[in-house]
Amino acid sequence: MKITSIDVYDFGKCLNYEDCSPICIRINTDAGISGFGEVGLAYGNAHNAGVWMVKDFGQLIIGKDPLRSEAIREQLFRTTFWGMGGGTVINAGMSAIDIALWDIKGKYYNAPVYQLLGGKINEKLRAYASQIQFDWDLEDRNMVTPEQYAEAAKKAMAQGYTAVKVDPVGVAANGNWQRTKQDADWRLRGQLPQNVLKLVRARLQAIRDLSPDLDIIIELHSFTDTSTAIQLANYIDDLNIMYYEEPVHPLNAVSMREIKENIRIPVASGERIYTRLGYRPFFENRSLSVIQPDVCLCGGISEAKKICDMADTYDVKVQIHVCGGPISQAAALHVETAIPNFLIHEQHSYGIKQGLRDTCVYDYLPDDHGELTVPELPGIGQEITEETMAKTWVYTIQ
């Protein structure tokens, strides 16, 4: 069996979402088996680079045996010069290819990918509702008041979720999302002013007041620095937070360690850390209690499984980062079900949007108890619909 072509699809051509445009690929073979993968650049400002990264790497693997995924990974890593340097875009391209190769492998052997990874350890995968600062509904809107944060959490709880994740600092008091428009009177670095501390505390308190049993995960998107992350964590220490995500620059293992030493909340990070080489300093200095590798960014299913196994030797738990299309969701579920150190699954607010769900054939969402099960179909168990492919085709590599 040989790879004959690779199709690249830009979902932004059929979705009207300003901040979520997945890029997916299909690797085709001369045996009639195709595999689907996703580039983990659905959000942020590197979207177009993902398309051309797959083009650059894809032309190198035409004619290769898709079952030799490790050999292909080594080729892309060691012979492209920039592969060994890594970075977001390079690893995203490699990840999409690796996921698609695993999909082909599963279909070839007529087995779901998790079986090829060693089989099922976790029958049920508990999920949390992620990013409720944008509400928990079919349309996003920035939450401002404590009452709005509580209402968003209520919606998730009504659907069976027993845990939520919220960025309590990202939306300023005037409603501006700080990633796109920063406000001088909503200072998040250096020292948190009282107006920020009080509103952030009130938002979290409103969610906590809904139930003492609800797990609350705090997401900071690296808006804070070392001192403000410590200041905030100690200010809300009594609210029983599950863990504290990306409190500082995602590649700064030294600052992450300083934060961990000065707060009681477990520290998490990983969506912007790539390959085992990227995680190594965080494991060695014991700065993270929870890692969050993104299968579509860290190097694919192959590298994600190795990272998770490496984490297990340090007694570090895993929550795969999922923030993209249905392909990324399916790939994450296969890794999570096959590892002993799984903690919880991320059900992102993007993932409940009907338009995004309709881009693929199958619809994997948590049940009424806030839990998921891994797809049992051969491969990753997810495919782009013919209609979506017709609308979104960008490029074919032959």
From TrEMBL:
<keyword id="KW-0456">Lyase</keyword>
<dbReference type="InterPro" id="IPR036849">
    <property type="entry name" value="Enolase-like_C_sf"/>
</dbReference>
<keyword id="KW-0479">Metal-binding</keyword>
<dbReference type="InterPro" id="IPR013342">
    <property type="entry name" value="Mandelate_racemase_C"/>
</dbReference>
<dbReference type="Pfam" id="PF13378">
    <property type="entry name" value="MR_MLE_C"/>
</dbReference>
<feature type="domain" description="Mandelate racemase/muconate lactonizing enzyme C-terminal">
    <location>
        <begin position="146"/>
        <end position="266"/>
    </location>
</feature>
<dbReference type="InterPro" id="IPR029065">
    <property type="entry name" value="Enolase_C-like"/>
</dbReference>
<dbReference type="InterPro" id="IPR034593">
    <property type="entry name" value="DgoD-like"/>
</dbReference>
<dbReference type="Pfam" id="PF02746">
    <property type="entry name" value="MR_MLE_N"/>
</dbReference>
<dbReference type="GO" id="GO:0016829">
    <property type="term" value="F:lyase activity"/>
</dbReference>
<dbReference type="InterPro" id="IPR029017">
    <property type="entry name" value="Enolase-like_N"/>
</dbReference>
<dbReference type="InterPro" id="IPR013341">
    <property type="entry name" value="Mandelate_racemase_N_dom"/>
</dbReference>
<dbReference type="GO" id="GO:0046872">
    <property type="term" value="F:metal ion binding"/>
</dbReference>
<protein>
    <submittedName>
        <fullName>Mandelate racemase/muconate lactonizing enzyme family protein</fullName>
    </submittedName>
</protein>
